[in-house]
Amino acid sequence: MQMSQAQNRYKADLRELQFLVFEQFGLRDLLSKEPFAAWGEDEVRMVLDETYKFATEVLGPLNGVGDREKCKLIDGKVKTPTGFPEAWKKLYEAGWRQLSGSEEFGGQGAPRTLQVLVEEMFSGANVAFMMYPGLSLGAAELIDHCGTDEQRKLFASRMYGGKWGGTMCLTEPHAGSDVGAARTTAKALPDGTYKIQGTKIFISGGDHDCADNIVHLVLARIDGAEAGTKGLSLFIVPKYRVDASGNLGQPNDVKVASIEHKMGINGSATCVMQFGEEDSCVGVLVGGVPHQGMKQMFQMMNYARIGVGIQGLAIAGAAYLSALEYAKDRKQGSSITAWKDPTAPRVAIIDHPDVRRMLLGMKAKVEGIRALIVKLSMHQDRATALGGKNDEQAAYHQGQVELLTPIVKAYASDQAFRVCEDAIQVYGGAGYCQDYPVEQYLRDSKIFSIYEGTNHIQALDLVGRKLGQAGGKHTQEFFADIGKFVSAKQEDAVLGASVKNLAKAQEAVGSAAFQFLGWFKGGEMAKVPLNANRFLEMMSELAVGWLLLEGAAIASDAQSKLTKDQKDWFFYEGKKQAAIFYAQNVLPEVVAKAKMLGNGDKSALEIPDEAFATV
C-alpha cells in the first residue's frame, strides 16, 4: 500500500493505554477527588477515544505532507506546510491543549497522566506539527508558574488558548550546549523593560503562521552580571509588541535569519533567530526577578525533557505497529518447518522466527517505555493530589519525578531510533522507501537524543545530581520499590525466573552506583562522564524491566479468569511474553554492563588525538 498525498498511517492500541492507567497504575484512585474531582473513568476513556480520532483524522494525514513540503521562509516570515494552520485552529478549538491546564485560564484540570497519553497519540500521528503547540504550552506554563500576575494574565492566558504561540531560546552559535557561555545581552531601560540583543540558533517553532503572535523566552545577560549560568536572566520577548490589553503593536525587532535544513521533523521550523538587529528589541524580566534565568528555564526544560521522552515513545509506537501490520500482510518465503520444500506455500513474514524476535523486542521496548512514562506522570499526579495533605508522601512522589526525568528523556529517545531501525528491517527494502512511513519515523526520531539537553547531559545529570539528591533518598526509595516487587514475585510460577533476573540487574545497578561514588571520592573524575551513558542505560533497563514484569503479573492474574476464546486473553498473554522476553534478553545485559563499567577501561582517555586517524 503506497502513500497518497495526504494519508493517515498512524495507529495506536487503546487497550494498552487503558491497561496502564486503570489496571497497572491505579488512576481510578485519584479520579473524582480533588484536584481531579471533575474527572471520572468514563471521561478518561472518552478522551482517549476522541484523541485517537483527532490524531488519525486531522494530524495523521498531514504527517507526510509536512515532511515533503517542509517550511519555507518568505519575506522574513515562516510559512508552515499545507494544513498546519487549520490543524492548529482545530486543536485549540477542541480544547486539547488545555486538558490538564490551569482552570484559571480555561484549562480542564485533567490528570497529567491523561495529558501524557494524549500527547503520545498526537505526536505519534504528527510529531513535527506538535512541536508548535508543545513548546507553546511549556512556555505558557513557565510564565504561569514564574511570572508576575500581570505577565500571567497578559501572556500565559493567550498562549494557553492558542491565540499566541511560544518558544524557548537558549542555544547560541558559539556555545551549543554550553548555555553559560551565552552572549545575548540585556540593557535596562528607564521604564523597567530591557533592550535585548543577540542570536539564538536551533529555535523550534521560532516563527510560524499558526498564531497571531509568538512569545519568545530568551536567556540573556544583564549588563554587569557575572559570567556563567548564574548571571543569566530570562526575558519575555514577543514577536510583536503588545499593550496592557493584549493588542498587537509594531514588530519587536525579532527576525528569522534562516531555517535549518534538517534530517527530519521537516514540518517544524527550526530557526536562527536574531534579536535586536536594529537595536529596538524590547523584553521584560520573567517575574521581574534578575539572575534567575536558568532556575526559571528549568521549569520549562524539565517539562520539555519529559515531552521528548513522550515523542520518542510516540514514534517508536507508531513504527512498531506499522511494522506489525506489514509483517502480517507481506507473504515471503516458506515456513521454517517446510524449508526444504520448494513448492511449499509462501507465508506471512510474521511466521519467520527472526521477524518475530524483532517484533517482540519492539513491543517490549515500546510498552516498557510507555509504562515508565506513565509511572512518572502518576508520580506527578499523586504529588499534586497529596500536596498539603501528606507532605511526606508528596515529597516521595516528587522525588521519583526528579530521578526518572533524565531516564525518561534519554532512554525513550535513544530507543526510539533503534525501534525505528528494527521496523525498517522488518519491512526490508520497502522500509527504506518513502512509500511506507517508517523511514520518516527514523529520520524524525534522531533529533530526540540531541535536543533539550543531549542524552550525555541527561546521563551526567543522573549520576552527578539525581543519584545523590536528598542524600540519596530518592534513589534508595526507587530501589526499595523494586525490592518489594522482587520479594513478592520471585517464586511466581510463570514469572519467577524473570523476576530473579530483575533482582540480579538491581544488584548490578546498585554496585555500579557505588562505583561512581568511589570515582568521585578518589578524584578519578574523567571516569564519570566516560561511563555515565552506560549507567543511565543500565538504570533505564532496570526500571523498564521492573514495570514490564509488574504489568505481566497483573496480566497473569487477570488472564487466569478468562478463556482462550476471549480477546483479552491474548492481550494479557502479550503482556506476559513481552515482559519475559525483556527479562531474558535485556536484563542479563545490565549485569554484563556493570562488569564492563567496573573494569574501569580508560582506552578512550589514553589514546592520543593523533592516533585516531592519520588524515
Automatic annotation (TrEMBL):
Note the superkingdom of the native organism.
Bacteria
Entry's Gene Ontology molecular function annotations: acyl-CoA dehydrogenase activity; flavin adenine dinucleotide binding
All residue ranges annotated as the Acyl-CoA dehydrogenase/oxidase C-terminal domain in the record: 292-462
Which stretches make up the Acyl-CoA oxidase/dehydrogenase middle domain? 168-275
Acyl-CoA dehydrogenase/oxidase N-terminal domain location is 42-162
Q: Which UniProt keywords are listed?
A: FAD, Flavoprotein, Membrane, Oxidoreductase, Transmembrane, Transmembrane helix
Q: Where are the transmembrane segments?
A: 303-323
Which PROSITE patterns does the record cross-reference, listed alphabetically?
ACYL_COA_DH_1
User: What is one term from the GO cellular component aspect held by the record?
Assistant: plasma membrane
Q: What is this protein called?
A: Acyl-CoA dehydrogenase
Q: Which organism is it from?
A: Sandaracinus amylolyticus
